[in-house]
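User: Here's a chain of 216 residues. Predict its fold as tokens.
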Amino acid sequence: MPTSEAAGSPRGSIRLARGVSPWLAPTAAAAAVTTLLTRRSPKWALAAAPLVALTGGMLWFFRDPERAPGHGRVISPADGVVQSVDPWPDGRTRVAIFMSPLNVHVNRAPVAGTVTAVEHVPGGFVPAFNKDSDKNERVVWHFDSDLGDIEMVQIAGAVARRIVPYLAAGAKVAQGERVGLIRLGSRVDVYLPEGIASAVTVGQKTVAGVTRLDHV
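Assistant: Prediction complete.
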């Protein structure tokens, strides 16, 4: 699997996220075919119109913009809104970020280092804003960094039922590098190490690869 960002993409450009073809390709193909069939019969417009709209929506949902990495020891792995900032029994602080279907769904590495684990954990699919979403389908990441072990958890929601990791254990990763995709929306948690306070508060918007999570 690739371990670095795609070269040659200008800053500010937008591309589609990896891992969307199984959803996008058949929808776009159906939209194209039904649109062509409207030349034979206007009745096909009844099928073409919603398919074209759905294809446009998917192109928006699965956008993957280029970004200049932010500054901080730990940066946000997800676009979204901070849902909670909770002290953890082991001294760490969990920052939970809720991703709506309108957010970019590509997640990025909160720190630079080595991926030491990528573990898929089966579970349910309750809405990501529900307190029981901790038991949802998820992928647990661990990064060996200058701050020690950093844990990040991608959590599926009621709509997002597929998490696509881009990297495997052993991969070297740069801070802000793309590491995976959650289709349509959900939640991403980051655990700040003991002694590092959160720089974000509940309700604050975050930008993946840009927003600083640790307090200066």
